[in-house]
Amino acid sequence: MSKETQIEHLIKLIRKEKVSLFIGAGFSLEAQAPSVWDLQQAILNELPSEEMKKEHTEDTLDEISQFFVDEVCEGSKAELMDLLQTQFDFEPVCMDDHHALAQIPHFHNIFTTNYDTLLEDSYPKNEREVIRKDDDIVSVENKQVRIFKIHGDFTNQDFIVITKQDYEDLKKQNSNPLVWNEVKSEFTKKHIVFIGYSLSDENIINMIKYISELITKTTGRIPDS
Question: What percent of the chain has pLDDT over 70?
Answer without folding.
Answer: 92
